[in-house]
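Below: protein 1.
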Amino acid sequence: TAANSPDPMHFQDFETLEDEYDVGGLPQARIDRSVVWVNPHPVSDVTAIAGTDTDAAISISSAINGSELSVTANVIYENGSTDGDKIVIYLLEDGILYDQTNYYDEDASSPYFGLGDPIPNFEHNEVLRDAMTATLGDAITVTGALETFTKNVSITIPSNYVAANLTIAVMLVDSNNTAYNSQHAHVGDFKDFE
């Protein structure tokens, strides 16, 4: 879109994320929300930390009643919460068709080679549509070992969202906004503690 036009892929509080994670342009990637993932984005940077132990597990349940989406996220800590812990709940949507800038249109090694710039009607998945908590998270009250912290949130879903394509993402972050566990579930599906 033109510089003076709002980007329809931005959610209402995208500036908070750009400022917090020093995003000066796109595309960019972060690991655990705060570690800059440098191009060419080696998979080994992610697999090296995949499966790292955490003492917190998350469960998610959600339901839509009319246009109202309600989400319950439960967190249980093996050793109790840490001061500064926060919970972040985001609403994501798949299947959004929108033109996509193509930096790789002339790169013969890219799967996007020759598709045009922009690529018309590109399918965008896992698009951040809304923060159901504060964008950087809501404080987790002191929670003892093997006790459950529960967060209930709800929003009215705009009519242009496709309910069947919606997913809930829940992250636990520390006082530095670094994620230490996450979980996701399609709206309407129950995800047990993991």
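Below: protein 2.
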Amino acid sequence: VRNWKKHNGFLNKLADFLDKKMKHKKELLFSDVTLELVTKFDAYLRTLRNSRTKTESDKMLHPNTIAVVLSIFKRILRKGIELGYTTPDKNPFIVFKCASIKTEKEKLTASEIQSIIELDLPVGSNDWHSRNCFLFSFYCAGIRAGDLLQLRWLNVEEGRLMYQMGKNHKIRNMKLVPQALAILDLYRTDSAKSTDYIFPFMNNRKVYADAVMQSDR
């Protein structure tokens, strides 16, 4: 879904650029993608407002957002070369470079984490389950949401968590700290099967639940 949103955003921006800056052009051939066109597209992106924020300082598209848009354009050109629609010598991205800027991701403080732990939430509510999932990921050195929600009881054995990451297929094997074990105890039942999901956001009766291992998915 996230990938689709990025590509859809790219297509919308490119279509607007062709309409407003390229004499209402509706189609773009691989042969049309020149260094001049890419340079003009880059300049156009730098005139767009950021629709997600209302603050004056962030009113324009962030340079990293522009870099993502252009990187999608670059990948499409590379795919076109692979499929024989154009040739490497006609790829403008050999010359054109769009660098991103390094940003610092703000981290929660220990007191903020403690505030999350102490939140008084109705047991069994979505907020309660979400808090448990977040803290379990936190106690396990950060599990991606896609991997976290697909954890099953077979991934837990003798106080350890072992699973294969969906993004890069690497195996993670770690000892569970007492706080993580305490969260698991909130969901453990006598009737639970080893192939059942630990957290309740996935449905054990759906077709996708039959794909137990990463290779099956």
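Helices lie at 2-21, 35-45, 63-82, 110-117, 126-139, 145-149, 178-187.
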